[in-house]
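Before the break, one more example. Copy the sequence into your notebook; we will annotate it together after we see the structure.
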Amino acid sequence: MRRLLVVGLLVLPLLVAGCSKGPAEAALKAADEAIANVAPEAQKFVPDQFATLTAAAAEAKASFDKGDYAAALAAAKDLPTKATEVMTAATAKKDQFMGEWNVMAKDMPILVADWQKKLDELIASKKLPKTATPERIEEVKAKFAEVNATWTKATEAFNAGDIKGAIENGATVKASIDWIEGVWAGIAPAAKK
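Here is what the structure looks like once it is written out:
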């Protein structure tokens, strides 16, 4: 009888471990599927939150690999919910970027066209202020060429689905336009009264 009790006590942990392996395995599989589903958007729009999510999944897998199925189950069971939260954050960030891009896409071509017109008029002007040296005008023309090239990159990025890249390039265009505007006061002909 005593022998059976000792054998029973030795076998019990193995049975418990075996019983909890299946649920832990299922929880890890569900977590992997949930993370795979959110990965494309989450990596683009909330990379830090996605990294935290994948680190938690790696910890759960490490516990499973060590045979600590209870810890693996505890760590993995909430991961699908966390993946949904990450996806919600990614969607919100994408919507924010889309709003920014829509404003840029509407306003920036008008702004660029206005500055192109001003630059063309300055170059065609017969009487320039002394501050409008050929070097300064060339500097503005070069910056404006950068503006056009960067805006092209922004629209190409957007068309390729890289909204974040489009916004970043659009912000560079805005900074360049601000620079041109700052220089403009010193080189533009005075307005006629």
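The two ends are 114 Å apart (CA to CA). The helical segments are 2-45, 47-65, 69-76, 79-124, 134-159, 163-187. Try to locate both features in your own notes.
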